[in-house]
Write a structure and sequence with these properties.
Distance between the termini: 40 Å
Largest sheet: none
Number of domains: 2
Helix content: over 70%
Number of helices: 18
Number of strands: 0
Length: about 425
């Protein structure tokens, strides 16, 4: 069940609002009702996987409870390893077995398991909480509150990745208190903007450019279609940012303020600036729970600390690519961005500052070009698109592709959706 599906918009969401409206009167019922609603959302697509979610919550919560009583870090380490193993089984088993088979020169049978809804997101939520518990930053929570943190349905499909400290204390608050209409309307505004981004912009651009990527599997593109294929990064922005805005809007409807996830990334003037604006919560997770630990762990002599720093940056971005999908093209995409971040860091330290306009041109060009690698699926298809860039674009097709031309323009010029909504909500009423 997707956020833009009719069953969600016309059945599940109205029913969930009505049920929670009734439960809001009874404080002990608020969190359990939201947990049950979230379980119902997860169960819609594949009911058996709800058992995986329930077991995941129970095992990690019991591990946290056991650590609270014994203070043995090995308990949390074992729980995190188990979480990653389950994620690896469902998401990366075929990728691993295929590559091991190539190395060994043998065929290893595929493990075709359907991917459980939101497994990457609820796995990372477990990890954030358990790591912070081990660091002494997180307290123990009751089972129902922890279960809601892991399963809260607005963040199931595409995030945002939410740190426990950002939402735990928001759960169970009274939603329908005096002035609740403002938060409700703000939620509706985010959902409306998100649906527009996803359906009108993202899906429409996808329908135009998907045939180009299908054609690239067979050979180079003609008629300048490769130039249009570059707009995939624009399409995925609208698709992903749309889902994030819908999630934020749904959070407001149930009394929870989720963090923003995109901040007009195509206004960036450096690749570092881009990654501070694009999928903000994922980069926060990677920075706090992967990059900093890699940098702060002494693995090389002091004179090689710069090597360790930039190596950690490359590894973090390579794993960022692998998180997006089990394919070497994703790893290559992430590694390319890691190299760009290293070059940008070195440039800022040793070279004169670039004009903002030049930084913007270089950043956007790099993002659009590497987006081809992300989307193509195979290196051959990506190479065919890059070869097609030698063919000038066909300007006569501009009218037919007007929606495509408008969408990049909007991505470059319009502010972030949260800024637009904040501006509209702050205007005085007539």
């Amino acid at each position: 069940m997707l956020f833009n599906d009719y069953p969600f918009l016309l059945v599940f969401l109205p029913a969930a609002i009505l049920i929670y409206r009734l439960a809001d009167r009874y404080p002990p019922a608020r969190i359990p009702v939201l947990v049950l609603l979230s379980f119902a959302f997860y169960a819609y697509g594949n009911p058996p996987f709800i058992l995986l979610l329930v077991l995941s919550i129970a095992i990690n919560w019991l591990a946290a409870l056991a650590y609270g009583q014994t203070k043995k870090p090995a308990i949390l380490t074992a729980a995190i390893i188990a979480d990653l193993a389950v994620l690896g089984l469902f998401k990366y088993a075929n990728f691993i077995t295929y590559n091991v088979g190539l190395v060994l020169g043998t065929h290893i049978p595929r493990i075709d398991l359907p991917l459980p809804l939101g497994i990457s997101f609820f796995t990372f939520h477990h990890i954030m909480y358990l790591v912070d518990l081990r660091r002494g930053k997180a307290p123990l929570y009751p089972l129902d509150r922890y279960a809601l943190y892991i399963s809260f349905f607005p963040q199931a499909l595409a995030g945002p990745l939410v740190r426990w400290s950002e939402v735990m204390e928001q759960f169970g608050r009274k939603v329908y208190s005096p002035g609740w209409q403002r938060a409700f309307m703000l939620g509706v505004a985010f959902i409306t903007v998100g649906l527009f981004e996803k359906i009108v912009l993202g899906d429409r651009v996808a329908r135009i450019i998907d045939p180009f990527y299908a054609q690239a599997e067979a050979g180079p593109l003609t008629n300048g279609d490769a130039w249009l294929a570059l707009t995939f990064s624009i399409q995925v922005l609208y698709d992903f940012a749309g889902y994030s805005d819908i999630a934020i809007g749904l959070g407001f409807l149930f009394g929870v303020k989720l963090p923003f996830n995109f901040n007009a990334p195509f206004r960036s003037t450096s690749i570092q600036d881009f990654w501070q604006r694009w999928h903000i919560t994922l980069m926060t997770f990677l920075r706090e729970y992967l990059f900093f630990p890699l940098v702060n762990t002494r693995m090389l002599p002091r004179r090689f600390l710069a090597v360790q720093y930039f190596g950690a940056m490359l590894l973090t971005m390579a794993l960022c690519g692998l998180w997006h999908g089990a394919s070497w093209t994703f790893v290559l995409w992430g590694t390319a961005h890691g190299v760009a971040l290293v070059i940008c860091s070195l440039w800022r330290r040793y070279c004169p500052r670039l004009p903002a306009w030049l930084g913007w041109v270089l950043t956007v060009s790099f993002v659009l070009l590497t987006g081809v690698i992300f989307r193509a699926g195979t290196l051959d298809a990506a190479f065919n698109i890059f070869r097609g860039l030698a063919v000038p674009p066909n300007l006569e097709r501009g009218l037919h592709l007007l929606p495509l031309l408008i969408s990049p323009l909007a991505a470059f010029l319009l502010p972030a959706s949260q800024d637009v909504i904040a501006w509209s909500m702050s205007r005085p009423r007539p």
